[in-house]
Amino acid sequence: MTQTSESVTWLTQEAYDQLKAELEYLSGPARALIIAKIEEARQEGDLKENAGYHAAREDQGKQELRVRQLTQLLERAKVGEAPEDTGVVAPGMVVTIAFDGDPDDTMTFLVGSREYVSDTLETFSPQSPLGKGVSGKKAGENAVYELPNGKKSSVKILSVKPHRG
């Protein structure tokens, strides 16, 4: 389960452990590897025209960004707690929708952080067009959201329930 708001991210123990292991690898062994790669490239001479050096530094920057993202995410994580069953679409809720009100064209997904990958559910961020469109709605209500091509699409909320992992 996962809920991301400005202050808290809800995660299952499994998701928390997976992200913590990634952080530990990036902060330890992966950091040592990238430092060694930079040092090796530095030994090749002129840094202005050393593509290997610049590529390694770019990789280091991306890796350090991911370390910061994971650190912040895990600092505000709450593990093992589901959101309340309010019946309102919000992060941490599993939502079933019907496209254009067609009961034969449905989709069930989790509204939550893209950091969490569910084996059984697709995850849509609350900031995504669909996530924004359905947020705050209840079962039985209609929602409209904008497609990437600028057109609008409507869905009917069929059910809303907390994700229980």
N-end to C-end Cα span: 5 Å
Number of helices: 4
Strand content: 15-25%
* Widest sheet, order of strands: 6-5-4-8-7
How many DSSP E strands?
A: 8
**Helix amount, in percent?**
25-40%
Biggest sheet architecture: 5 strands, mixed
Mean pLDDT: 84
**Helix and strand composition category:** alpha/beta
Contiguous runs where pLDDT drops below 50 for at least 5 residues: 1-6
Describe what you observe in this structure.
- The chain is of the alpha/beta class and 165 residues long.
- The protein has helices spanning 13-27, 29-42, 51-75, 129-134, and strands at residues 3-4, 9-11, 77-79, 93-99, 106-111, 122-124, 142-146, 152-162.
- It has a five-stranded mixed sheet. Strands 1-2-3 form a three-stranded mixed sheet.
- α1 (13-27) packs parallel to α2, α1 (13-27) packs antiparallel against α3 (51-75) and α2 (29-42) packs antiparallel against α3.
- The longest helix has 25 residues, at 51-75.
- The radius of gyration is 21 Å and the shape is elongated.
- Residues 1-6 have low confidence and may be disordered.
Topology record:
Blueprint (H helix, E strand, L loop, with lengths): L2 E2 L4 E3 L1 H15 L1 H14 L8 H25 L1 E3 L13 E7 L6 E6 L10 E3 L4 H6 L7 E5 L5 E11 L3
Parallel strand pairs: 2-3, 5-6
Antiparallel strand pairs: 1-2, 4-5, 4-8, 7-8
Helix pairs in contact: 1-2, 1-3, 2-3
